[in-house]
Design a protein that fits this description.
- This protein is an alpha/beta fold.
- It folds into 2 domains: about 270 residues, 3-Layer(aba) Sandwich (Rossmann fold), CATH 3.40.50.2300; about 160 residues, Rossmann fold (3-Layer(aba) Sandwich), CATH 3.40.50.
- The strands form 3 sheets. The chain has a 7-stranded mixed β-sheet with strand order 8-7-9-10-11-14-15, with helices on both faces.
- Helix 8 links the parallel strand 9 and strand 10.
- Helix 2 packs parallel to helix 11 and helix 11 packs across helix 12.
C-alpha cells in the first residue's frame, strides 16, 4: 500500500533533462566488434549484410551519460530505466531472436569526453545505435558526427534546437523530447493565456502587463529563449513590456531586484535545473511573488525548497505526460512492472516509481525497441537504413505521453504538452510503516491537459 501511495502522490511527472549505488566510471555489458554476419535458412543460403553491432543472437547499443558527480542523480536513473526495458525484452526472448546488450560510459557531462566516448562506442565497440544520447554538451558536440556516420540515434536527453529538422528523410537523428524552441513557445503561451491573474486569479495576463524573462547564456537557455521571442512576436506582445535578463549564480539577485523594480506580473525562466533552483531561492530572498513558468526539464521537486514556496508565487512547468487518463494509468502500471522486473534493489525500485529520469530512460528504450519490432515485422535485415525507414513508417506512441512522428523526415520531437503546477502537502511518509502527519509530500500536479500550441494560443475557452 505504501508503494501505491508513493506512486500516486507523484504520478504527474514531466520527463526532464539537463541516489544510486552505481559508482563505476564505465559500465560495459559487452563488446561486439562484428560489422556483418552471414545468416542462412533451409531455403536460403544468401549472405545477409547486417549493421555493425548485430549478430544472429544479439544487438549491441550504447550511450554516454553522466553517472558520477553533481549530475549523477540524472544520469544514473536514466540509464537504469533503459536497462530495465532491455532486461524485460531479453527475458521475453528478445527481438526476432536477438537479445539487446547495452554499453554505457560516464562522460562527466563534458563535451570533449562525450565526443571521445561516442566515437569509442561507434568505432571500437561497434554499437548498432546510440540510445538515450545524453545531455546538452555531448549531444550538441556529436550531431555532425552522427549524421556523417549514419548511426541511428534514438532519444536525445536534451532539447537543443540543433535537433530540429523540418524535413529530413533518412536522418539518423531521432529526438523524442520536445525541442527547446517549441518548449519556449509553449511556456510563453501558457504564461500569457493561462487564467491565473487578477484579484480572483481567473484572468489571462493583462495586455499592458510587464513580463520578466530570465535566461542562462548556454545552449539550453538560448534555445528556450529563441522560442520565447518567437511566441512573444506571434502573440503581439510589445517589446517594451518584456525584460530579458541574462543570469548566473552571481548575478541572479541583481536580476530579481530589477524585475521587482520593473513591476513584472510574471516571470519566464529559460534554464535548466541548477539555475532554476537558485532563481527560486533568489525570488524568495528578494520577495518577488509572481507566477513562474519554466521548461519541462525543471519539473523536479528536488529543485524546489518547499519551505520557500508561496501560493503567491506558483510554479508552473511544461510536461509531455499523461498519467491520469485510462491509457495513462495503464502505461504507469506497465512502467512499474518493468522496474519491478529490473535488477535493482527493492528500495531503489520504489524510489524509481516516481523518478522522472528513470521514466525518461524507460521511454528512450521503448521507442528504440519499437523500431526493432517494426524491422522484424517487415521481415527485413537489421541495417541502419531499414531501421530508420521503419521508424519513419508512422507515429510512435510514447508511454505516458502522446506520440512522436518521424514520417516524411519530420524531426520535431514531441510538439504538444501539458501544464504542471508544483504542490506540497504535509502527510504520511510513504517509505515508512509508521503513520505521520508532518512529512512534506511534494509533487507536480496536472493543471492543464496535453494541448498543441495552437490550442493554447486560442485560449482556455476554445
Amino acid at each position: 500500500m505504501k508503494k501505491l501511495v508513493l506512486l500516486m502522490s507523484f504520478a504527474a511527472i514531466a520527463f526532464v533533462f539537463v541516489g544510486c549505488n552505481e559508482t563505476t566510471q564505465a559500465v560495459v555489458t559487452t563488446e561486439v566488434n562484428t560489422t556483418a554476419v552471414q545468416t542462412t535458412t533451409a531455403n536460403d543460403t544468401t549472405a545477409v549484410q547486417l549493421a555493425q553491432g548485430v549478430t544472429d543472437t544479439t544487438i549491441t547499443v550504447g550511450n554516454t551519460a553522466v553517472t558520477s558527480g553533481a549530475l549523477a542523480f540524472v544520469g544514473v536513473p536514466f540509464n537504469e530505466g533503459i536497462k530495465a526495458v532491455f532486461k524485460q525484452v531479453n527475458d521475453n526472448g528478445g527481438i526476432d531472436g536477438r537479445t539487446i546488450e547495452f554499453i554505457t560510459y560516464d562522460d562527466g557531462f563534458n563535451a570533449e569526453q562525450g565526443v571521445a566516448l561516442t566515437e569509442k562506442l561507434v568505432e571500437d565497440d561497434n554499437v548498432f545505435a546510440l540510445v538515450g544520447h545524453f545531455g546538452t554538451p555531448t549531444v550538441g558536440a556529436t550531431l555532425d558526427y552522427i549524421q556523417e556516420t549514419g548511426i541511428p540515434m534514438v532519444y536525445a536527453a536534451t532539447g537543443i534546437n540543433a535537433l530540429y529538422f523540418e524535413h529530413s528523410p533518412g536522418n539518423p537523428v531521432m529526438a523524442v523530447q520536445p525541442i527547446y524552441l517549441t518548449d519556449g513557445r509553449i511556456m510563453t503561451a501558457r504564461a500569457i493565456m493561462e487564467p491565473i491573474y487578477g484579484t480572483s486569479h481567473d484572468e489571462a495576463l493583462a495586455n499592458d502587463a510587464k513580463i520578466g524573462v530570465l535566461y542562462t547564456n548556454d545552449d539550453v537557455g538560448n534555445s528556450i529563449k529563441a522560442g520565447i521571442e518567437t511566441e512573444m512576436t506571434t502573440l503581439g506582445i510589445a517589446e517594451s513590456n518584456i525584460y530579458y535578463i541574462e543570469v548566473s549564480e552571481t548575478t541572479i539577485d541583481t536580476a530579481i531586484t530589477l524585475l521587482k523594480l520593473y513591476g513584472v506580473s510574471t516571470v519566464i525562466l529559460a534554464m535548466n535545473q541548477t539555475p532554476f533552483a537558485y532563481t527560486l531561492t533568489s525570488m524568495y530572498d528578494n520577495e518577488l511573488e509572481v507566477p513562474v513558468f519554466t521548461s519541462y526539464v525543471n519539473a523536479d521537486v528536488t529543485a524546489v525548497d518547499h519551505l520557500q514556496y508561496s501560493e503567491n508565487r506558483p510554479i508552473y512547468t511544461n510536461a509531455w505526460v499523461d498519467v491520469y487518463s485510462e491509457a495513462g494509468q495503464a502505461a504507469v502500471a506497465e512502467y512499474v512492472a518493468c522496474i519491478n522486473n529490473s535488477s535493482l534493489d527493492e528500495e531503489t525500485k520504489t524510489a524509481y516509481y516516481s523518478n522522472s529520469f528513470a521514466i525518461a530512460g524507460y521511454i528512450a528504450a521503448k521507442v528504440f525497441v519499437e523500431g526493432l519490432e517494426r524491422v522484424a515485422a517487415n521481415g527485413a535485415p537489421l541495417t541502419w537504413e531499414n531501421y530508420i525507414a521503419a521508424m519513419e513508417e508512422g507515429p510512435i506512441d510514447i508511454p505516458m505521453g502522446g506520440t512522436v512522428d518521424f514520417s516524411d523526415g519530420k524531426r520535431w520531437g514531441i510538439a504538444s504538452m501539458s501544464l504542471l503546477q508544483y504542490s506540497f502537502i504535509l502527510g504520511d511518509d510513504p517509505s515508512t510503516t509508521e503513520v505521520e502527519t508532518d512529512f512534506p509530500i511534494e509533487s507536480f500536479i496536472v493543471a492543464e491537459s496535453i494541448q498543441t500550441l495552437d490550442e493554447i494560443e486560442a485560449g482556455p475557452t476554445a
